[in-house]
Structure formats: C-alpha cells, structure tokens
Design goal:
Helix content: 25-40%
Largest sheet: 8 strands, antiparallel, barrel
Structural class: alpha+beta
Radius of gyration: 20 Å
Distance between the termini: 60 Å
Order of helices and strands: HEHEEHHEEHEEHHE
Length: 249
C-alpha cells in the first residue's frame, strides 16, 4: 500500500525545522574533565597556555570552570563559545592544536565526561549584562512522554523572571542532542558574584503569583513535578588561571 502524499508532506514539515534553523544563536560546547590532583600545577599551566594560544578569540574562546558542589565537585568544565554549529567546522585543529591538547593537557586528566552542546533560548531568557565569576546551574531531566508540557511551563517561568526587575538575570539552555539515560535536557542558569548571593533569598513565587494569581501556584508546582523526573544543581566557579583572556568586544 502506497503512503498518501499528504502524509509524506506532513512528515517533511515535522522534520525540516530540525535542520533549517537560523544561524544566529548563542551556543556553548562543554566538556567535563576530572583533573589529576597530583599534577594540578602542571595542568593549570598547560591548560592556560593552550587556551591562550588557540582559544583567545571568538567564536572559539574558551573558559575553564570548576564545579564547586555535588558529585562532580573538583571537576573542571571546559567551555567554548558562543559558537554555532557552522562555525564549529572551522574550530582550531591544525597548526598544533590537537597535538598540544593530546600531549600537554590530556595526560593530566584522569576522566572525561560528556561533550555537550547547550543552546540558549533567547526569546525566553533574561541574559546578564556582564559575565560573572560564578554561575548557578539547575539541570532538568524531562519525564518520558511529558515533553508537551515544556512550552507552557517555560513560558510561565520566563515571564516571571522577566517581571523581577532590572538587574535580575536568568537564562534557559537546551541540550542539542538526545541524552538517553543521562537526562540533562534543560539547564537554567543564574549569574553569581559570590556565595553571598545565595543569602539574598528568592522571590520567584511572589513574582509568579503577582502575574498569575495565588491559586495558580499549586497547579504550576504539580505540573513541574509531572513534567520532570529529576533535577540537580551545580555551581561553577571561573578559573582565570586556566581560561583564555576575556575576548575583546
């Protein structure tokens, strides 16, 4: 039995948007790296030299962050970008880059985690005006078959953050590749100037209820519990002694 043309066309309409995307977006490549604690000094010097030489300029600028809490505390996160997929085709590789990484960085790494690509939703996000030395990140794992809840949830969360006044920043990133059992589908990020930021409280609920009403909070919270099967937090601290210099504007 031949497949009706209208269903073939419908399938193409669903598939094409996955590939036909605008080339103007903010995206970062991240790699978790577990350092050899016996050779931290050598790793720091070699990583700094590598990033200064090969990753000082946009779009291939690289920062190194240290995870400050949780199961991966002490691990490093090497982050490059913002860099689109098209720009990724021209990333450093020749001219000694790969050899330098293999010979001078990897010998001092004892384990390597996932390489991930995180794209910011600029329609929903309220990005910070300036970079900060710390980032608070909440990773979310979507419950199977509950992806249809994402649109309304993130819209409400975004509108709440946007209402929280000048100086408040919040960003939403989506993992660009399927993760299987790893989860890590979405990440919310908040800039931090220091640990004292955590003592300033969180008025998200008050801001949410001001927009949607007090009666909307419990259904919203229940939907969050239905939509996500897991979440966890990491705080990343910038390591200037391993990162490339800030790129020029």
């Amino acid at each position: 039995m031949k497949t009706p043309f209208k269903w073939i066309l419908a399938g193409l309409i669903l598939i094409l948007p996955l590939w036909i995307v605008a080339q103007d977006y903010v995206q970062y490549e991240t790699i978790y790296l577990k350092p050899d604690t016996k050779h931290l000094g050598t790793l720091q010097a070699n990583m700094k030299a590598h990033n200064d030489k090969y990753h000082s300029d946009a779009p291939y600028h690289a920062n190194v962050w240290q995870v400050s809490n949780g199961p991966k505390a002490g691990w490093l996160v090497w982050a490059m970008g913002p860099c689109t997929f098209s720009e990724n085709d021209g990333r450093p590789g020749e001219g000694g880059h790969d050899e330098d990484w293999a010979n001078n960085v990897m010998p001092y790494i004892t384990d390597m985690g996932s390489i991930e690509y995180w794209r910011r939703d600029d329609d929903l996000s309220v990005p910070p005006d300036n970079p900060t030395p710390m980032i608070y990140i909440r990773f979310w794992e979507v419950r199977p078959n509950k992806g249809f809840l994402m649109g309304d949830l993130w819209e409400k969360i975004s509108e709440t953050h946007k209402s929280m006044g000048e100086g408040h920043a919040w960003s939403l990133f989506e993992n660009e590749f399927r993760q299987g059992d790893l989860g890590r589908h979405f990440a919310e990020t908040w800039p931090m100037n220091g640990w004292s930021d955590l003592d300033q409280g969180n008025n998200f609920r008050a801001a949410f209820e001001k927009i949607y009403g007090e009666a909307a909070w419990t259904p919203f919270f229940r939907t969050m519990n239905e939509a996500f099967v897991n979440s966890y937090d990491e705080i990343w601290t910038l390591m200037p002694g391993m990162s490339a210099p800030p790129p020029e504007n």
